[in-house]
Each structure stands twice: as C-alpha cells, then as structure tokens.
Predict the structure of Glycine--tRNA ligase beta subunit.
Amino acid sequence: MDYLLEIGVEEIPARFIPGIIEEVKNKGEEFLKEFGVQYEAVISEATPRRIVFYVKGVLPKTEEKIQEVKGPAKKASYDSEGNPTRALLGFARSQGIEPNEVIEKEVNGVIYVFARKKTGGNPVDELLPEIARKLIKSLSFPKPMRWGDIDFKFIRPIRWLVSLLDEKVIPLEIAGIKADRISRGHRFLGQKEVVLDRAADYFVAMRENYVIVSLNERIEMIRAQLHRASAEEGVVVDQDEELLLENANLVEYPTVVIGEINREFLELPKEVIITPMKEHQRYFPLFKNDGSLYHKFLAVRNGGRENLAEIAEGYAKVLRARLYDARFFYREDLKKPLSAYNEKLTRIVFQEKLGTVWDKVLRLKELVVAIGRELNCDDEVKSYAARAAELSKADLATNMVYEFPELQGIMGRDYALKSGERKEVADAIFEHYLPRFSGDIVATSEVGILLSCAEKIDNLTAFFALKQIPTGSADPFGLRRQALGLLRTLIENKRFFSLKKAFDAAFNLLPAEVREKANFAEVYEELLEFIYQRFKGLLLEEGFSYDTIDAVLATGKDDFYDLYLRVRALENLRNHPSFTALTTTFTRAYNLARKGQGREVAESLLYEPAEKELFARFSEISLNVKEFLREKAYLKAMEEVAALANPLDRFFNEVLVMAEDEKIRENRLGLLGAIARLVLEIADLSKIVG
C-alpha cells in the first residue's frame, strides 16, 4: 500500500521550500518509526502550492513485537501452598494478564516471573490520522501565519488536504479543512479539481495537470532548457546554482523563455545590467565567448510553451524599466569624481562606538601602511593602497550602490577608472571586499591583497574589542566570513605574514574609548583562537587529518601560510616508513624531558654508546633542520627529524634515562629536551593519534 498526504497552501516563499522538504522527510520518518509503521521508502516534496508526504510500500499492520516484563521473584510470587501472593496478583493486574499466564526465567541465579506481552500488529489505517496530524502540527517555519479566527499557524493558509491510503480516504481535519481525494492542478493550466482514485496515481495525475512535484526534476528541467536555449543562440548561460534553485522553487511547471535586452543599455557596465536581472527579476544572463554580455536573457515561466513571444516581451519590459533607472543613477553618479562622495561618508554611521564610515576609511589608510611593512610591500604599492583605502567606501554614497547594494566595490572600481584613478587603485577598491561569498575569488593584485587584509583585520579587531563575538549561529557582522576570507587571501597568494603585529596596529587605531575598555592581550588571544577554528575547518575541508592540524597549531604560531605549509608537509610525512616510530619515541622523549631542568648537554657526561650515537646524530641533524626551517622547506626538515627515530629507539632500549647519578640523569634529560625543542619548532608530534 502507498500513503499520500498532500497539504495544499497559498504560495510558499521560494527560500523556505528546501527546508520544508527536509523537515517533512525527517519528521515523517520519525513519527512512522514511533508508531511502528513498516514501509519501503518516504518521499517528501514541495512546490509553491503544496507540501507532499508520500510513503511507499506501507504494510497493513504495525510491526509485532514480543515484550517480556520482569516481575517479582518466584519465591515472593507464591505462598507455601503455591497460591499467588499479593505481589504476583498486583503485577499480573498491572500487565493486563492472568496470574497463571506468567512465565519463569532465571536472572543471575534467581528465578523471577515475567509477563510476556505481544505489542504492535495495529491496523495502520487507524494510526495514520494521528501521524499526519502530528506531522503537520510539528512543522516549524521562520514566519508562520494565522488566518481567519482559527487558533492554528502554518507557513501559509491551508486550502485543501489529500489523505489517501491506496483507494481509502484517511480521515483528517486541520484548520477546518477536511481531507479527501481531491487535489488541484496548476493554478492556470491544470484542472481546478483533480480527483485521485488511488494514492499511486498522484504523481502522474499532477504531471498531466502541469505540476512537477519533484524539486530535483524541476531543477533538471530548467537546467536542460537553459543549455538548449543558450546553445541555439551560440552563447553561454550564467548558470548560477542558487538562482537555478530559486527559480525551481518559484514554479510548478518550468518553461524557459528567451527575452531581449535593449541594445542601448549595453553601454552600461555589464554588472549594472546583470545585478537587476538576477537579483530583482531572477533572469539568467547570457555571454558571448569573449565574456561580453549578450543582448538576450533567459527567464523561467510557470507554465507551458503557449504565448512565449508575448511573455518574453513582458519580461523584457519589466527589465527595461529597471535598466532605465539604473542608467539614470549611473549617469548621475558620473557627474562628479568618486572622491567627491567621501564627504557623505562623514554622515554615515559605521557603528555607534566605532564612528562613521569615514572614520573607518581613515583607519584603513593608516593600517595598509602598517601591514604593507609586514608584507614587505614596496613604497609604490603602499602608496596605491593608501589611495585605494581613501576611496574604498566612496561608492556607498552613490545612487547606484544605494539602489543596488550588491554593486559595492564593483561600482567603486568603475567610477574610480572613470575619475582618472590608476588601474591598481581601482582594482583594489573592488578586490578589498573579496571573497564575498563561499567559493568566491580572493584578491590577487599586490594593492588589492594589502587593502583586503586591512579591511578584514580592522573589522575583526574592532568587533572583538567591542565583545561582538559570533556565538552559535549568530554572526551579524559576518566575522566568520571575514576570518575565512583573510586566511584564503594569505594562503592562496602565498603570503608569509604574522598577524599579531597587524592586529596590534589595528587595535591602536580604534577610538580611544574602545581601547580603554579592552585589553589587547585578551582581544588577540580570542581572535587567534577564533581564526584557528576557521583555519581548522578550512583544512579539514581540504582533506587534511585533524591530528595533523592540531600538531601544527600546537606551535602557537600566527603566520597562517607558514602553518599551512607545515600541515601539508606533516601530512606528507605520515607516509614515511619511520613516521609511526618517530611519533612514539618523540612523545616519550617529550614527556621525559619535562622532568628535567633544561640544562645544556655536556658531551663529557655521555657514557653509553647509544646516547653518544644519539647526540652525534642530533648535532648533525639539528643544523640541517634549522637551515631548512629558515628556507620554509618543512618537508625536508621533517624528513631530517625522521632520521632520529632509530637512534631514539635504541637510546630508550639501551640507556637508563633516570640514572641514580643526578648529573648523568639531567644530562640525558637535557638531550631529550633538546630533541623535543627541535621537533616542536615544526610540530608537536605528541598530538598525532595514529
């Protein structure tokens, strides 16, 4: 048997649909298990007008189980004449059986009476009304609605219910709506009432009425049509996956339409056209092979292929109105140079305690110079970065960015170039916001890297000093994204850079009242731990072992490209034949060394051949290791260290470290301490699990 529960509603916002599908499946399976319902599979789906819970292969009865309940001991259950005692009578009554129906079992040498009860075997059709009711009432939504005078909330008002177990209507009433076998087709193309003879007819009947119930199928339909339409035009479609998902959640029967962009608008920067196209109209841009914007777009309609020309013209007309506005804003903005907009920044508050956006700009101007010194940038790069910092937020005061905030940085670059600024400055204005989202590119130009790092370091330092630290899922200032962006910028551009000095410089540029209420040492400690967590997450996503990462982070360093190279080297070393032996012996050496007083090793106090060999090998290797460390050649340094595995093993097998003679004991502990300190320059191998 198959069971269908369809909840017909008014239009659900597209962004909620994927979460609804997941929650219906998870909670539906949970309630089926709770009631003991046996089935083959659960299908959960949703469109803008319906939520679907479909259970395939439902067995007529719930699973039967034999349950044994332990009662009193046998000797307490019968009197001397073998008659049931009050204890047995009470137990039997509580279990709903007769005293003579108990069985006896031995437990730990004592015989007890047990009640054997059969549970389950209940008709499923009697349980489904309660399961469906619990499922509907358990669903949670970000913005539930109440309608009419009923005391019930849901994502949108419920308009119909279908509840079918094969051919049988399962009784159900929610919010005054009684379930039956009548669904509804597409709002405009399908039948107003679709009578379902049986649950198994549902998906075919919906398709015949222009409703594609499956979200994944709607996605693939749109994807295929986008490719076909763009191929026919000989161009490339910008197949944004988020935009694709949103469109699939806006329609029940998707059909791709091709529309025209008035060529007069193509003189605008392509981002000015693409942003309203995607963000406001949900259209897909098309591009020529050279990357320039094509004069047509693709859109998704909720319906079939009838009247496509008229619909395409309607879509184009709406976009045209948007682009008229965009062109007006663009032309107005270009009437003054970009720098002229800085004056407005003095009246825009960045954060109550951090001052205006212009105050932030002034901090960035000084911070890029300080960070530039740490990154060994030449004077020209620092000069360009200071100019880019001065103009970095000017576009926030323009008409275009006010109307389309998504264009911040993009318009700054365009306006800077048209104001006669150098390309290096203009590119940095755009790049300092990068990466803007997961998977986005990072800054790559010298000036852009410098300004991008300064932007993120200023934000992180300022909000941590204010104790505005992300907690749980709350991150109102996007500090997790800022930290990840900083890490990616440094690592992907291979920049060696100790963050402490940069954070110190950023802290000293904050308003005096903020600095006075914060302690830099505490702020830095919290910042470093926060960035460590983002760094670990980044490396785990790349496939590095968690204990490799922990071993490297235990060094306490804050040059994250340097740390990245160490992690990569240590992960490679794990394939070395001596690695396991090295980690074992190092851990032993490290633990023993902590018992010593850290004295220098006196060669004259080395008596045993094994300790002499270890000292000689260590003396030779340590020079090589230190040279490799200076060259950042961490794999070579670790391979050198791995050569100590055998001498260390022999040392522990043949030498009594904790000798009675204090001088000899301390000398041996000093040797182990020197080895431990050398290895700890690279990583703490005691953190390696296996």
